[in-house]
């Protein structure tokens, strides 16, 4: 593995940059990695180095919990979705026994992929190389010309390989390629309560991820996505202006008043384990009355409000309705719940990332409410949206800029002197503070140096 080196050794370069340079940093050396992360800044090699990216795949995406998909994406026996755990292809499939599994998309004979399409419904997966056939639980049911294998060959010993750990929290399916991970709910910690805010927004306490997906690929690092409350007034200035002109344009109490103006009761929050959120709960409840008038004007809106009040009582119903299924949370390393969507980040290269954006529908509400959720999603996300193309563009500009290495450090210190620890152990700051970025980097470093003695 190559070393990450500074190539600016001249006295002139050192005069330009007052910070010390990082030289001869070996990506697999825990001590060297610690040199790249300070409390308020990180080295841009974390975003640009192919060697560090490969170590991230090994230490994070192949060694910890990763979100695969939602069980509602495979509602019927035989339904499957092809996804990736880091760089490894997997199949999320509901078997004929109704169990949702995560199986490696690899024939046990010569290694060919057995699923060549992104989604579908199958009773059997057939390898097109030599015809080995598996049922939708992964069990090998037949091989061609079996006499060539002799009497000791066992079909049971050659089923599709399952991910070592699979766990489901409220129909959110997670998997790990390592058996050495904590229980999923322990890993999620307080992030689980934020997932609850989405699921419990449904009168039936169920959501559906069945409306399709927006996909985008940008030329930037996977860690750039989301949980930044500092950028909306600049990257999304036109959208912020629209909020101010047309307050009743969509679902949720978020934008009845600007949550990013520095005056709102909004916060950044580090939930631990790299999970973080833009916490707008108090702000949304404060502006719920305006949103409630809007919601009651939508077909089925009054019935929806009454159903949550009857089930949960006035206070919790108000919270759930005001949030409208948007806890605005990032679950490390690859899943976010933002606005009306579940988002998956797929790392492709150090400077290349795919983002999958799945609109969320609520079970138990009127078609008009779910249609409104879809229209609101489309207004901001996807290729014709008002917002997500802005994000992709700025991520690419960041990636290009970080290739300038005279002063290779990036600053994540905003608000470091005013953050505070809450009684529940979470760390909070101003909505524009870089609390999420610092929390992410702390956990990133922990996973990247796992097993090494801490000095």
UniProtKB/TrEMBL annotation:
Residues 65-175 form the Rieske domain. One of its GO terms (molecular function) is dioxygenase activity. It comes from the Bacteria. Signal peptide: none annotated. Keywords: 2Fe-2S, Dioxygenase, Iron, Iron-sulfur, Metal-binding, NAD, Oxidoreductase. Gene3D superfamilies: Naphthalene 1,2-dioxygenase Alpha Subunit, Chain A, domain 1, Rieske [2Fe-2S] iron-sulphur domain. The keyword Metal-binding applies. InterPro entries: ARHD_Rieske_2Fe_2S, Rieske_2Fe-2S, Rieske_2Fe-2S_sf, Ring_hydroxy_dOase_asu_C_dom, Rng_hydr_dOase-A. The keyword Oxidoreductase applies. Belongs to the bacterial ring-hydroxylating dioxygenase alpha subunit family. PANTHER family: 3-PHENYLPROPIONATE_CINNAMIC ACID DIOXYGENASE SUBUNIT ALPHA (PTHR43756:SF1), CHOLINE MONOOXYGENASE, CHLOROPLASTIC (PTHR43756). This is (2Fe-2S)-binding protein. It comes from Paraburkholderia phytofirmans OLGA172. The lineage of its organism: Bacteria, Pseudomonadati, Pseudomonadota, Betaproteobacteria, Burkholderiales.
């Amino acid at each position: 593995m190559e070393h990450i080196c500074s190539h600016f050794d001249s006295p002139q370069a050192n005069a330009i940059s007052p910070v010390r340079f990082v030289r001869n940093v070996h990506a697999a050396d825990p001590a060297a990695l610690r040199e790249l992360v300070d409390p308020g800044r990180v080295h841009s090699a974390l975003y640009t180095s192919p060697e560090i990216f490969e170590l991230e795949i090994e230490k994070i995406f192949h060694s910890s919990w990763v979100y695969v998909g939602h069980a509602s994406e495979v509602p019927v026996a035989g339904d499957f979705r092809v996804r990736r755990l880091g760089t490894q292809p997997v199949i999320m499939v509901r078997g004929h026994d109704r169990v949702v599994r995560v199986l490696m998309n690899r024939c046990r004979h010569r290694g060919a992929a057995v699923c060549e399409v992104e989604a579908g419904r199958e009773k059997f997966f057939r390898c097109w190389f030599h015809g080995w056939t598996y049922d939708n639980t992964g069990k090998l049911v037949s091989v061609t010309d079996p006499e060539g294998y002799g009497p000791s060959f066992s079909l049971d010993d050659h089923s599709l390989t399952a991910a070592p750990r699979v766990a489901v929290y409220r129909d959110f399916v997670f998997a790990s390629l390592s058996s050495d991970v904590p229980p999923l709910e322990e890993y999620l910690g307080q992030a689980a309560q934020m997932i609850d805010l989405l699921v419990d927004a449904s009168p039936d306490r169920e959501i559906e991820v069945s409306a399709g997906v927006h996909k985008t690929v940008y030329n930037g690092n996977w860690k750039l996505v989301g949980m930044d409350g500092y950028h909306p007034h600049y990257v999304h200035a036109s959208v912020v202006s629209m909020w101010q002109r047309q307050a009743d344009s969509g679902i949720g109490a978020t934008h009845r008043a600007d949550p990013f103006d520095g005056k709102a009761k909004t916060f950044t929050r580090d939930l631990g384990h790299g999970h973080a959120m833009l916490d707008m709960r108090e702000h949304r409840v404060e502006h719920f009355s305006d949103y409630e008038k809007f919601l009651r004007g939508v077909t089925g809106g009054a019935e929806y409000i009454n159903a949550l009040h009857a089930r949960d009582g006035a206070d919790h119903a108000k919270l759930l309705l005001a949030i409208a299924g948007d806890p605005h949370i990032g679950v490390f390393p690859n899943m976010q719940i933002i606005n009306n969507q579940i988002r998956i980040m797929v790392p492709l290269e150090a400077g290349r990332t795919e983002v999958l954006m799945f609109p969320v529908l609520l079970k138990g509400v009127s078609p008009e409410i779910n249609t409104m959720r879809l229209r609101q999603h489309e207004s901001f996300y996807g290729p014709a949206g008002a917002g997500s193309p802005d994000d992709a563009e700025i991520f690419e500009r960041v990636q290009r800029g970080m290739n300038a290495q005279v002063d290779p450090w990036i600053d994540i210190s905003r608000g470091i002197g005013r953050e505070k620890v809450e009684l529940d152990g979470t760390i909070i700051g101003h909505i524009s503070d870089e609390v999420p970025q610092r929390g992410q980097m702390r956990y990133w470093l922990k996973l990247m140096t796992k097993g090494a003695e801490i000095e």
